[in-house]
Design brief:
Blueprint: E1 2-12, H1 19-30, E2 43-51, H2 54-69, E3 75-82
Antiparallel strand pairs: 1-2, 1-3
Length: about 90
């Protein structure tokens, strides 16, 4: 079995209200950051998945999204997979 780094990006479906995104857009405008439109706020979930192949890692992450990580009624998700970084590394 191999270990894969899986990144799941979840965001509100297009056309649905995003009150948090709207609040951020308004605040940015108030701070003088003009020309910013359609702010959408989502989330990123990073996983280390053990699987026999990259395809299986994607399939498992998709199942996780459908059962827990994303609300299929209001959210869309995208999955990217890469080889895991070395253990003990730090991210800024």
């Amino acid at each position: 079995m191999s270990h894969f780094h899986v990144e799941v990006r979840i965001k509100p479906r297009a056309g649905l209200l995003d009150p948090e995104g709207k609040a951020i857009q308004h605040a940015l405008d108030s701070l003088g950051f003009e020309g910013v439109d359609n702010v959408r706020v989502g989330k990123v979930v990073d996983l280390e998945v053990e699987a026999p192949s990259e395809k299986e890692a994607i399939d498992r992450a998709t199942q996780m999204c459908r059962k827990l990580l994303a609300n299929p009624v209001t959210e869309d998700f995208g999955i990217t997979v890469s080889e895991p970084t070395s253990a003990g590394g730090s991210e800024a």
